[in-house]
Write a structure and sequence with these properties.
Helices cover about 75% and strands about 0% of the residues. The chain is mainly alpha-helical. α3 (about 60-70) packs antiparallel against α4 and α25 runs parallel beside α27 (about 495-510).
Length: about 600
């Protein structure tokens, strides 16, 4: 149905079944058993459940199907209840009911409905639980039914799922194009839109971003317009859109489609219902500065992914940890990914935490493990490569970081991918400036700022402005002040406390007073920073602190800088006074 139009009397899933049944009858296969030849009360409840599904009244649909199933369990009732539960976010129960429905359809036998349920379970297990083995098993089961019972109208859906499951984006594109051609021949508009979306996603994965997002746009327009008739199609195309836009940082496009889906969302609920898509949706909101909304979506994704395989739950944890890290809540970020530190999906945020802690060598080891798994020429490797370059700069390996930044920038330009270009230019500018060429670094950093602004990524734009201000500290102090002020305003608006403290400290270094509303409280310090502050109060030098805490001198320098920034003081002497005032003598463990 078109979004906002009159609800159909029967569920969209039932209509799709009937369309497939008619196609099967035309090629000579016997029609499967029809729905609802049971007692009149159950028939009434079943009809009411279908009407509620069509209207998007998920609670009413759930109640009707549950009551009908209490009187007599039918596969159709189980499917209807599963659909209602799925939209209500009760994913585990929904999948359980679908599996029971599949078994009942097989016992009849009713291969068409059994295959349709198997198709849906394939997607459920992959997108909601990250369980690739179960997903592949349900795909194989659906394919066997299609082959054994000559269910030709379903062959396109099998091809689509093979594309969806595939790890090779070129092969996925080929399978999806075959599925689209079958959809055209059979007139299955839902399949055509889903296949179009899959082709677009596969092209983005290949780095052919402009081609891919154009097809994703087309699929989104058709599905939101109700062209296919199934709300499942909206979910499938929306998930592909948000995933692909996240990978290539087409964040403005993602936000525009989220807004375009607003009418659908208000009527039926969030189309990013799979835990995987919900996590990415929250990440897009975070990247574009909508941190409160991002928090809600990421917490929801975290709850939805409990009981999923580690990859999916770990991704939700990592995304929320990234938000916490940006808010300056490092210890909370660490707690979120505790136990997942060696998992591939958490590698970027774990590496970023180590950098924030002043532990670049550990960050390098973390990044290298992940890059070994995915390679350096994938879209998702861009953030890792930039983090690796930042770690190299922290280890005084600017020349290596320059080469890495240049390679990353060239890759972004060749793929027409703005986020890779922006990250490459930022790393290149930072490394060049760190090597002593402020003017050369400025050109690259300004390019990066412009790109991040176009991408509507305010945190990254502000962080880049900070790097530019630091580069111009001595050669153009007035420009440095302007850049630091602009960065501070953005960072305070976002709630990026750690970065805002750094911006305020830089402004104080430039002679600008009252950069923030007041000194930061002692409570914002981490446990290790409190230890460093206490030892500053004892009058220890950096080498002495390093020896006392069994850490490197470079790490001590990072901790001292963070302490000065957070406390709003400009010297070790002021920090020592603050230590005695707030911690008191002999208070290292306070």
């Amino acid at each position: 149905m078109a979004c906002g139009g009159r609800p159909h009397a029967r569920s969209i899933t039932a209509q799709r079944r009937d369309r497939i049944r008619l196609r099967l009858e035309t090629i000579g296969d016997p029609p499967p058993r029809r729905i609802g030849h049971v007692g009149s009360k159950v028939e009434v409840l079943f009809a009411a459940g279908n009407e509620a599904l069509a209207a998007g009244d998920w609670a009413a649909a759930r109640d009707s199907f549950q009551t009908a199933l209490e009187r007599e369990e039918t596969a159709e009732g189980l499917v209807g209840l599963a659909d209602a539960l799925w939209w209500l976010g009760e994913i585990q129960d929904a999948v359980g009911h679908r599996e029971r429905a599949y078994a009942e359809f097989r016992r009849r036998p009713d291969p068409v409905n059994a295959a349709l349920v198997a198709v849906r379970l394939c997607v459920d297990y992959r997108a909601n639980f990250g369980n690739f083995a179960a997903s592949a098993g349900w795909l194989a089961r659906a394919a066997r039914l299609v082959e054994e019972f000559r269910l030709n109208p379903l062959r396109g859906w099998i091809l689509l799922l093979e594309a969806y499951e595939g790890d090779d984006p070129s092969l996925s594109e080929s399978r999806a194009r075959e599925a689209r051609e079958l959809a055209r021949q059979s007139g299955d508009l839902d399949l055509e839109l889903c296949a179009l979306s899959q082709i677009g996603a596969s092209l983005v994965d290949q780095g052919r971003v402009a081609e891919g997002v154009a097809l994703l746009d087309e699929a989104m327009a058709g599905s939101l317009g109700g062209e296919g008739g199934s709300r499942d199609t909206v979910v499938f195309t929306s998930c592909h859109m948000i995933a692909s836009c996240s990978r290539c940082a087409e964040l403005e496009r993602a936000v525009q489609w989220v807004r375009a889906a607003d009418r659908f969302t208000k009527r039926f609920g969030c189309p990013f219902l799979y835990a995987f898509c919900r996590t990415l949706y929250g990440s897009v909101l975070f990247a574009t500065g909508a941190w409160k909304e991002a928090e809600v979506e990421l917490q929801t994704a975290l709850e939805m992914s409990k009981g999923s395989l580690p990859a999916l739950h770990g991704q939700a944890l990592a995304s929320l940890a990234e938000l916490r890290l940006a808010q300056g809540r490092i210890e909370e970020a660490e707690r979120l990914v505790a136990g997942f530190e060696d998992h591939f999906v958490t590698a970027p945020v774990v590496a970023a935490i180590h950098l924030a802690r002043g532990e670049p060598a550990v960050a390098v080891a973390t990044i290298h493990r992940r890059l070994h798994e995915v390679g350096e020429d994938r879209l998702e490797s861009a953030l890792l490569l930039e983090l690796l370059g930042e770690a190299e700069i922290a280890q005084d390996h600017e020349e290596t970081a320059v080469d890495r930044g240049r390679t990353l920038s060239e890759l972004g330009a060749s793929l027409s991918c703005q986020v890779i270009l922006a990250r490459g230019e930022r790393l290149l500018g930072h490394a060049v400036a760190a090597g002593g060429d402020a003017g050369g670094g400025r050109r690259h950093l300004e390019t990066a700022i412009a790109a991040f602004v176009r991408l509507e990524m305010p945190l990254e734009a502000a962080r880049t402005q900070m790097l530019l201000a630091d580069a111009l500290l001595e050669v153009e102090p007035d420009v440095a002040v302007a850049k630091a002020r602009a960065a501070l305003a953005t960072l305070e608006d976002l709630g990026a406390e750690r970065d805002a403290d750094a911006a305020a400290a830089l402004l104080r270094q430039l002679g600008v007073r009252a950069a923030r509303s007041g000194p930061r409280a002692i409570g914002t310090l981490t446990k290790r920073e409190r230890e460093v502050l206490f030892l500053l109060g004892e009058g220890l030098s950096n080498p002495e602190i390093a020896e006392r805490l069994y850490i490197s001198r470079k790490t001590v320098e990072h901790h001292v800088a963070r302490v000065l920034s957070k406390l709003g003081v400009s010297s070790r002497a002021e920090a020592a006074v603050e230590a005695v005032r707030q911690l008191g003598p002999g208070s290292a463990q306070k």
